[in-house]
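Final report, Chapter 2: Outcomes

The project's central promise was a pipeline that accepts a single protein chain and returns its three-dimensional structure in a standardized token representation, suitable for archiving and comparison. That pipeline is now operational. To close this chapter, we reproduce one record exactly as it appears in the project archive, with the input sequence first and the structure output second.
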Amino acid sequence: MNPPEGGVADELPGVAPRLRDLRRSRGLTLESAAQRAGLSPAHLSRLETGRRQPSLPMLLGLARIYGTTVSELLGEIPPERDAIVRAGTFEGAEADGWMYQQAGGSGRAMQALRVRVPYGAQGDLVRVHPGEEWLYVLAGRLRVSLGDTVHDLDPGDSAHFDSLTPHRIAAADRGGSELLFVHTLLQSPAAELCLGSGIHRR
């Protein structure tokens, strides 16, 4: 089901033209970029025109392909190479139900995010892509599926895994979960990416 008209631009203003401009600046056609992201050309076109809201995994995938970061896709660019990120009220952006906030500096080989995962959001979405991921549960219980193995993590628990392992991340309790999430960025705009055949498309 498509989101309500106007909701996308309100939630992620400016991301659509940045997606289009980045793809063109990398010399990628709509078809080639969509194939690398595991999307259909029509779906990527809707993201670039603001008719669909990208999920966080889609933003992560497109950021890898274009050699940038999610925060830069959203226009949330902190001072270049700033080593310190101060604490403050959680005022993250929303993507397909998840709330996330930049927790590290830009221009790095890793991207750090503080993420809130509501119960029932993206729980059936399988991710597969190059790189590594590390997450640390701050609050609530988190369910992490790695291949055929399911792990329930409590606050203080962490997971560190190869992102080529098919994985799913979901809140295990109705109160949701909050975590620190760190993943490696592939700086090459030509890097291949697959979000898996199990990706949930609405």
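Archive annotation: Strands lie at 93-95, 98-102, 110-117, 132-139, 142-146, 149-153, 158-162, 167-171, 177-184.
This record, like all others produced under the grant, will remain available to the consortium after the project formally closes.
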